[in-house]
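Re-running the complex after MR caught last week's input typo. The corrected sequence lines follow. Everything else is unchanged.
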Amino acid sequence: MNPTPLVALAGNPNAGKSALFNALTGARQKVGNYPGVTVERKSGRMMLADGRPVEMLDLPGTYSLTPSSPDEAVTHDVLLGKQEGERLPSALLIVVDATNLDNHLRFALQLIALGLPTVVALNMIDMATRDGLTIDAAKLSEELGVPVIPTVAVRKKGIDELKAAIGMLAAGGAVKINGDDPALHQDIVELQRRARAMAVAATTEESFRRRWTHRADAVALHPIIGPILLATILFVMFQAVFAWSAVPADMIDQGIQQIQALVSASMDAGFFRSLITEGLLAGVGAVVVFLPQILILFLFILLLEASGYMVRAAFIMDHLMARVGLSGRAFIPLLSSFACAIPGIMATRTIDDPKDRLTTILIAPLMTCSARLPVYAVIIAAFIPARDIGPGVGLQGLVLFALYLAGIAGAMLTAFVLRHTVTKGPPPGFMMEMPRYQMPILRDILLGLWQRAWIFLRRAGTIIAATTVILWLLVSYPKPPADFAHPPIDYSIAGRIANTIEPVFRPIGFNRDMALALIPAMAAREVAVSALATVYAVDAGDETIQERSLIDRLRGRWSLPTALAFLAWFVFAPQCISTIAVVRRETNGWKWTGFMLAYLFALAYVAAGATYWSAIALGL
Amino acid sequence: MEILTALITLDKLPLKACGEIVGVDWDSLSEKDARRLRELGVDEGVEVEKLHKGPFGIDPIACRIGRMTIALRSAQAAAIAVRPRASE
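Corrected-run output:
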């Protein structure tokens, strides 16, 4: 009769909350979003020892209940039962880092004051022992007035005890929230002092030290070695994205070709066969091929985050970011944006200065995301000769590198201009906790990768599949009469639309086919490749669509200045509906979204035009 | 016996030196920065240690505050008054 009890998991960042959540729920997780904000809602099902299910809700890691950032606002609203679409949790699990009790207990005190049935997980108790601390959990429990259970989430220690305690709490009936408790609004300093006194009372300190983290930081934060190390890590990361992905990408490519062959062999020629092979499989296949690259990029980002290095990277980058009016915090979302702007923009929620955050959101789409790779790869393969211009330095690789740099330079320049005009304000501070280094947990990394892969494949299966099929229909129909003198595509709906908008793009060197490809590429950049493939395949009346033949066809039809202009366009153009949607949600409206669209399109148009006419002038 | 030393602000504390926070000029900080610093455990009586400086020698700095290591900029660190502890 009763609905599944909902238990919320709350605590400071770096308390090991996610690891504990994963240990409690395993892979039975659901990742979604709260309505109206881009705060991730992560929930999972946990089975108690007696077989009763409990829904665990992983709240974002925050330092307090003061609702000043979106993360904190969600935590605050959920725990007070005010969050839209979320029921009031029937119990609360607070995670504290045993090695950092004075700080984490402050937030715990604030949370306990809410009056929900509560249990505290005294996490990373093994680390505390290693740091030379002995903590009396019974004494702490007495002081706090709630059960305290020592845990080591990464080794699944204390999990059964924790489940038993949650089972006891969740069994209670309706709960009431003590929204007026003075402790909720108490001064931070006051709470902090209480927390510190409690921590001191429960802890016996022998010799506190974090030898490992100190030694690692001596290198990672060294004024000279640190930046070199960061540059090396980034270099290896981008190398790996290309080097490691070649084999699995080929396998996916061949798999799709085999499916196409299978479909062709088992179906009669006609509308449905063409729809499936030329439209659906060719279009979706052109995108799914990039799954290995995206996963490798995410693997690196997840590892950098889980190990604690990401904050060090932000530390090293802070001074440079400050020069364009941003803070080191902006570096993390911008680095994620190289994989995809969507998680990047979502990661900006950790930036608490609103103008710093807005500027970061506005420039995130300029970071070369993995969806641009298919476009770059095809055009570069077709127009840039594969010759070496130095030992181990190929011209094609150099052009690709230049495109990445153009995006970064554009972003920095834009940030500088924005911070002096529309997002003008006092320079944002840079304050961050630098957590201990940790060995990333394989299970947690794999879970994160799986969630990313699933999001990507779902996108490929829905939005990209739908747009390529629609495009295929538009370029294929209506069929021209037998005596039609021009290419059949000119008679199709898409051909007519492209002919209409082509004059807009003619001054920057684009031809009709490019104008045509830009329309569906609004859905997602990589669709430009499958769109060109579809357009030229339908145009040539071919049966099979292969990348190699697309490259050959491009060579015959585009001039070098045109191809370069197309590349320049894709460095800047905001061609991704999902990103636009996330920006709208994140900035709470169309005002800044419209601004971003306008400035990015203007940049793209100018950059493409400048590239085209410079190339012509240079006689390329 | 502890030797009485002159107060300095955290940004001026030498690298690797320890000290005790004796006062924070909260009013010189923005409300947000002040709240964040409090949340990160900055308070009178807490021990600090200057651990690292950024790659260009000035900003940002990394300090141990109690048991936590935090990164902050010199501008904010200038609001924190520290009594340096005589080196052991």
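None of the earlier attempt is carried over here. Chain B has one domain: 8-84. The two ends of chain B are 12 Å apart (CA to CA).
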